[in-house]
Write a structure and sequence with these properties.
The complex is a heterodimer of chains A (211) and B (468). Chain A is 32% helix and 15% strand. The two termini of chain A are 33 Å apart. With 211 residues, chain A is of the alpha/beta class. Chain B has 16 helices and 19 strands. Classes of the chains: A alpha/beta (211), B alpha/beta (468).
């Protein structure tokens, strides 16, 4: 997994609540058996005016000029600011892969859906929960100055915003550790293989029908 | 000992070890696998030179991509075919139990798990699918995971988890005639909101939940995720044990009494504390229809499409306006005047035998309305289909003008050929009315099986009681 330490980049606004994972990556692209290549189809239904599919060349499609991520400078954005319950719905990790492949490194929102939130950390995409008022102020800053940038520092859990005191954010200690170091948590869990075997030994005596 | 909730008990039973910060290594008893969210996990396993930790914990089935029409020629779409073949070859390579497309036991993963007895009370059940919450109906801790976590469970039989908070949703008293499990859960989501359960494990209780069959309880738990909760659950009782008894994966005779003794403890203690308690008066629930693009956007069949101008929260009002525009609806329109183009009866929410019986009861001796272009009935599994045919339900549907299909996820998410065209409006028994969910530009209204059948017959939304 790619590590996340610090990141500075352009902020793109996604001004609607409950952006679901079907919207982030529509179902026809889930037929892929790979982890990569989803970026050109991130937000596909909103981003293009005609239908897309795994066998359709995106370069031949009509781009929706009204969609925010099709407009400069937001097409170069690496930080997404969104509203409540971002990433709700399906557990598809393809949504995170699509955002990552588009170039996003962080998503800021007042709240996230649980599965999306977890999936993000497994892929080096940092989801940051901020108070709705702070999110509002970031939306306003972007509106006033398209191309507005934020600088995120995971180690100190702060976001630098021009002309303001640094914003602090919370992050789970273990997840932060994994993200800072780009750690594969399967390897970490397997260090406890003896504990898992001991649990199985005990449990299989209590409840043999489970084994 | 302090009083514990059902969720507390299930959690405690499965903790392998805990870290100081509260992160626990949680043991997983049952891992359900399907073709869409597993190929990258198997590939990760191979690249790291790892093998599945416990092969017999895994049950695999293709469901999302499978065609619901004649399967004798295989899957036409080469991309979908490759994904299903990849599941088959991964299962062969690692020696996993799979119900392949031609197996009578094939079906939607959340239908076949319980049907086979592969879902049991007291288990932890995971699957790379958000509707895994379904299995909580058995007094199990069941939740959806992403592909990285699928790989983690394959490799270690465990997941790193932090405990959720406890919420009780109690549906008190009895529901009126004609009000089903789907109406109950849509009403709950309408009250709680689509993110109201985020961070919680929800236990559904109260007389109206206790009175439900296992099929009904599965419908309710299935949609816990639509209220934001990864896990929903119902305490074990005689209904649960009766359902589980004698299924292929259920405990053998010599273990049965011991299993029952353990399962009978799977309920919240009388004085257990919940972080949040919601009470709903069952008698107040009417048949429900969603009007918008989030499951929380729901009204009773006798109500009108709500007005965003009356919403005080500006973000919410804006969301409502976007939803009305997408759905091509006007505030104030009675929902029972909204006419439809297609009907879908199926999905992991509502494709079990009881759902098909409820829909057939409404459709029997009637005809699908002329304006309805397609009315699909997609059973949840090969065995549900077989049972329905033994009861003659297929003949009722076909005589009424419905199409009777092979089992799979079908038009719930439209990964296969079953889908809405842009602008088409559908009465659907599935679980998500998101933009484009059933096909780009398609408009989905979530309803119960009886209400979907009623809409098919009337050509617009209608109270099933009035149609039948």
């Amino acid at each position: 997994m790619q590590a996340f330490k610090q990141h500075k980049g352009i902020v793109a606004p996604m001004d609607r609540p409950n952006v679901d994972t079907d919207a982030i990556i529509p179902k026809q692209f889930l037929k892929s058996i790979k982890r990569s290549g989803f970026g050109p189809n991130a937000f596909d239904d909103w981003r293009y005016l005609d239908a897309g599919g795994p066998d359709i060349d995106n370069d031949t499609r009509r781009v929706n000029p009204d969609f925010i991520l099709n407009q400069s400078p937001f097409d170069k954005a690496t930080i997404l600011v969104a509203r409540e319950n971002f990433g709700c719905g399906s557990s598809r990790e393809h949504a995170v892969w699509a955002l990552d492949d588009f170039g996003f490194r962080a998503v800021l929102a007042p709240s996230f859906a649980d599965i999306f939130f977890n999936n993000s950390f497994k892929n080096g995409l940092l989801p940051i929960v901020l108070d709705a008022k702070i999110i509002d102020s970031i939306f306003k800053a972007v509106e006033q100055k398209p191309g507005f940038e934020l600088a995120i520092d995971l180690e100190s859990q702060t976001i630098e915003m021009e002309g303001q005191a640094p914003i602090t954010f919370e992050v789970d200690e273990f997840k932060k550790h994994c993200l800072l170091n780009g750690l594969d948590d399967i390897g970490l869990t397997l260090q406890h293989a003896d504990d898992i075997k001991a649990y199985e030994q005990k449990r299989s005596q209590q409840a043999p029908w489970l084994f | 000992m302090t009083a514990r909730t059902l969720y507390d008990k299930l959690w405690d039973m499965h903790v392998v070890r805990s870290e100081n910060d509260g992160t626990a290594l949680l043991y997983i008893d049952r891992h359900l696998v399907h073709e869409v969210t597993s190929p990258q996990a198997f590939e990760g396993l191979r690249m790291a030179g790892r093998k599945p930790w416990r092969v017999n914990s895994i049950v695999a089935v293709p469901d999302h991509n499978v065609p619901t029409t004649d399967r004798s020629a295989g899957i036409e779409d080469p991309v979908a075919r490759l994904q299903v073949e990849t599941l088959d070859s991964n299962c062969q390579e690692f020696g996993l139990n799979e119900f392949v497309m031609s197996d009578i036991r094939q079906g939607i993963v959340h239908v076949i798990g319980p049907e086979q007895g592969a879902t049991l009370p007291g288990m932890t059940v995971v699957c790379g699918d958000s509707h895994t919450s379904t299995h909580g109906a058995f007094g199990a801790l069941a939740f959806g995971i992403g592909t990285s976590e699928v790989e983690h469970v394959l490799a270690t039989q465990c997941l790193l988890q932090k405990k959720s908070k406890n919420m009780l949703v109690s549906v008190d008293g009895d529901v009126a005639d004609g009000v089903t499990a789907k109406d109950i859960v849509l009403a709950i989501i309408g009250k709680l909101g689509t993110a109201g359960g985020t961070g919680y494990a929800i236990e559904f209780g109260g007389e109206a939940i206790r009175a439900l069959s296992m099929e009904g309880r599965m419908t309710v738990c299935n949609m816990a995720i639509e209220a934001g909760a990864r896990a929903g659950m119902v305490a074990v009782d005689a209904t649960t044990i009766e359902y589980v008894k004698g299924r292929p994966y259920s405990p053998a005779a010599n273990d049965w009494d011991r299993a029952i003794a353990e399962w009978k403890e799977l309920h919240s203690d009388a004085d257990a504390k919940f972080d949040e308690e919601i009470h709903i008066n069952a008698a107040s629930i009417k048949p429900q229809v969603t009007w918008g693009t989030s499951p929380e956007m729901v009204v009773a069949i006798d109500a009108v499409v709500p007005d965003p101008d009356k919403e005080t929260d500006s973000v919410k009002a804006d969301g409502m306006r976007k939803a009305l525009a997408y759905m091509d609806l006007k505030a104030g329109t009675p929902i029972n005047e909204v006419s439809i183009d297609k009907v879908f009866i199926g999905s992991c929410t509502n494709s079990r035998i009881e759902d098909l019986r409820a829909a057939a009861k409404v459709a029997e001796g009637k005809q699908v309305a002329g304006n309805v272009k397609l009315a699909l009935v997609v059973p949840g599994s090969g065995l549900v289909k077989q049972q329905a045919e033994a009861e003659g339900l297929d003949k009722i549907f076909i005589a009424a003008g419905f199409e009777w299909r092979e089992p799979g996820c079908s038009m719930c998410l439209a990964m296969n050929a079953d889908r809405l065209e842009p602008g088409e409006r559908c009465a659907s028994t599935s679980n998500r009315n998101f933009e484009g969910r059933q096909g780009a530009g398609g408009r989905t209204h979530l309803v119960s099986p009886a209400m979907a059948a009623a809409a098919a017959i009337a050509g617009h939304f209608a109270d099933a009681k009035e149609v039948s």
